[in-house]
Amino acid sequence: MNTKKTVLLDVDEVICFSGYLEAVNEFLGTHYILDDFTDYYIDIAAVPKDRFEAFHHFIETKNLYQNAVILPNAVDTIKKLNEVYEIYICSACVNPFNIQNSGKEFLNKYNFLIEFLPFLDPKHFIFTSAKHLFKADIQIDDRLSNLDNDVELKILFPSYHNKSISNEELKEKGVLRAGKDYKTGWKEIEKILLDTH
To answer: What are residue 140's phi and psi, to 5 degrees?
Structure first.
């Protein structure tokens, strides 16, 4: 009988930054960095409305995970967690602005995961935007709206778009914050989930 606790683990802005920002910069000829943004949807903030459709046609030609930037300590920490917990990847792949061409992102994200996290069981990969349907003991996500009230331990991973969420709001929702800097987020996760285990 498996007695390991289960973890629902997000991918984008938690394990890696995909090449989305790089695609925006290439398309616009800009030099944005993540800290230039406070909203989750970088394209809405950066791309002019009259070029929005053209941008989404542009990214159809890209594999946004080909040059994804893995967050510091993510792989090492996930490997350690995998020894103690049952890890389930729970990540969305549908681009709400280009639904009909989102299918290739499922494949690209899957290939990224099996290349960089080969120790995880691919049968534990859940690609969905309806994360609330899946229950676990622990959930790690960068979006507060994705953290399910029914999950015992909810952890908000720090990212450019969630810095302004107050400690009061997190406390009210029963959510722990893994620090305030994505560069040290995985070290904070390790303290929360491994040091006290």
So the answer is: -120, 120
